[in-house]
Amino acid sequence: NFAKSFIELGADENIVSDIWILQFDGTSASSKLINTQYISVATSSLGINLIASSTNNRIVIIANTHSSGWTWVINSTYQELLDRKATISNESDIYGGVDNKGVIMSGFTDVIVNNIVSSTPLLIDLTRSIAKVEFNISLKSGSGITIDSIMLCDVPSEFHIADNLKSTHFPFPNPYPIHASTTYKTFTEKTGMPIANGTVKTFQWYMPRNLKGTNASDSVSTKNMNAPQGASYLRVFARSGSNKVTFRIYPGENMS
Hints:
mainly beta; five-stranded antiparallel sheet; 16 strands
């Protein structure tokens, strides 16, 4: 009672190391999980087995779990998948503790399995389940400041493994997560400094969703004082002569 199909990965397949295929018997929150398959990615086209069905089924991909040992409960609901979280204790957990640093991604499509033609790819877009933070820092020539290290602070300790799916069907409130019920982590300092005057250095992190609203301040001088509780920030350790200086920088679209 299995119908054969296959998935074709996009141009960035080198960052997808493995995938879980989850088949639900419908497209609602109460739809039941009826089939799972784990594949370690080796080629750009992957064969998968789907249970035959004449009605719309939801096919979910969870990529880069880096483990064939994840437990999925047959007959659990799609809502339970959306609510499932993974915890992190440090930055390496974001990448599954492996060298290729492939981060967890998710995607889905709704199909009538009986209508699938085996020679036609089942195309599913994958979206990261965590956010990317990129920070460019530069020093003007003659500034007299030396930057020694930088770290990302107040990072939520858990994230939804199918964050993209959850936000698609049930948009997250803002703020999210609720500060009082959240444990936060600080990632290890990034060193390899100092940054030379007149140059730009780029730092990159991946972190769980951390919506904390809008800063009430419209002034550079008061922005940090009015930052929402639990908002993630960058801590920059610097020196000016013999004096040590610490800067706190909140990422965001603008002053808010």
